[in-house]
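Ops channel
N.P.: pipeline sanity check, posting one input/output pair.
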């Protein structure tokens, strides 16, 4: 139950952060629930982020925040939620892995290969790109 509460708090924090990103402000294409709506969802006893990933904008926003935070475990957890929202069994089959094996590789402490992460992103319809960091000062 503690882990569920922490995930809910993280979701509220992330949605707020996503709305403040330059890309979200510029594009105004990222449609996310309001902070009030997320807090209301947080009172639910069982909350599954995979149920709220509805379109590519949700996926992009989720991945942008996870990458910006730089926490690999959170990134993998988000990729797992995205994969679950699209159908983990089918994705595992297309990767040539068992569903359980794929879950294990992207579970906390699973340490998947870079190839696995890239293939997962590809099967979800995304690719990883690199851009130069802004200079300080």
């Amino acid at each position: 139950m503690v882990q569920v509460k922490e995930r809910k708090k993280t979701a509220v924090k992330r949605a707020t952060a996503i709305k403040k990103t330059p890309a979200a402000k510029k594009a105004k294409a990222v449609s996310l629930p309001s902070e009030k709506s997320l807090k209301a969802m947080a009172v639910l006893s069982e909350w599954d982020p995979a149920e709220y990933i509805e379109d590519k904008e949700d996926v992009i926003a989720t991945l942008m925040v996870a990458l910006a935070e730089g926490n690999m475990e959170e990134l993998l957890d988000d990729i797992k939620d995205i994969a679950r929202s699209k159908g983990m069994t089918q994705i595992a089959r297309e990767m040539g892995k068992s569903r359980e094996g794929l879950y294990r590789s992207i579970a906390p402490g699973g340490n998947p290969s870079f190839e696995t992460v890239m293939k997962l992103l590809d099967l979800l319809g995304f690719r990883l790109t690199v851009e130069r960091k802004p200079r300080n000062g």
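N.P.: looks fine end to end. The chain is about 65% helix and 0% strand.
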